[in-house]
Amino acid sequence: MDTEEIFDRLKPLYPHEYFSTERDPFYILISTVLSQRTRDEVTEVASRRLFEHYSTPVQMVGADVKSIESLIRDVGFYRVKAGRIKEISQILIDEYYSQVPACMDELLKLPGVGRKTANCVLSYAFLEKAIAVDTHVHRISNRLGLVDTVTPEQTEIELQKQVPVSYWREVNELFVQFGKTVCKPLSPDCEVCVIEDLCAKKEKKK
DNA sequence: AAAACGGGGGC
DNA sequence: GCCCCAGTTTT
């Protein structure tokens, strides 16, 4: 299958770039942690509110956990995340001179950071060629027939084989936007889909 | 492999 | 009231 065709057709529909207004790796790391299992409108507001008060690892460590909790009260798992933000900040100070490491192995050592979050940081903060596989990317890659996988990590590996490197950084945002608006988890809107002719599941519908 | 963490929004 | 959401960690 011609995978470039997929991205060339989706790109004009979703020109907006995620995290377009923020480049600070620490902000991207923390806001990505906050985004886990939480809608992005909520995440956006909470991240900005948090960083208006504390914007560096040192400030996070110096802050009262209760204060951080109250600032991010509306995101999911906010107590757990508040604790992890302090843990992460302390590790960055102790191990990385208060900088966010630009390397998968080091990122994965941080509490609350899995492959999806680590790949988002590598891609959005450091512009590395990384594919961040969340539930949307996983679902859509399988629906299209791009991959045939069970776990997100398998999807990441298979996508790396199927997708030209120059598109790796775009896969996450394009598939997430596409997944939220058209290729939804249940009842995808195939009648308005611009890549239906490329989809392995189109015949199964109806 | 499945459960647990969890508040907010949509229907 | 019930279901889902830009996942990760623990059992």
From TrEMBL:
Report the residue ranges that make up the Helix-hairpin-helix DNA-binding motif class domain in this protein: 105-124
Pfam families attached here? EndIII_4Fe-2S, HHH, HhH-GPD
> Which note does the record give on the cofactor?
Binds 1 [4Fe-4S] cluster.
- EC primary class: lyase
Specify which residues bind [4Fe-4S] cluster according to the UniProt entry for this protein. 183, 190, 193, 199
| Enzyme Commission number(s) of this protein | 4.2.99.18
Which biological processes are named by the entry's GO terms? Answer: base-excision repair, AP site formation; nucleotide-excision repair
Domain of life, per UniProt, equals Archaea
Which keywords does the record carry? 4Fe-4S, DNA damage, DNA repair, DNA-binding, Endonuclease, Glycosidase, Hydrolase, Iron, Iron-sulfur, Lyase, Metal-binding, Nuclease
Query: Is Lyase among this UniProt entry's keywords?
Result: yes
Chain's role:
DNA repair enzyme that has both DNA N-glycosylase activity and AP-lyase activity. The DNA N-glycosylase activity releases various damaged pyrimidines from DNA by cleaving the N-glycosidic bond, leaving an AP (apurinic/apyrimidinic) site. The AP-lyase activity cleaves the phosphodiester bond 3' to the AP site by a beta-elimination, leaving a 3'-terminal unsaturated sugar and a product with a terminal 5'-phosphate.
Q: What is this protein called?
A: Endonuclease III
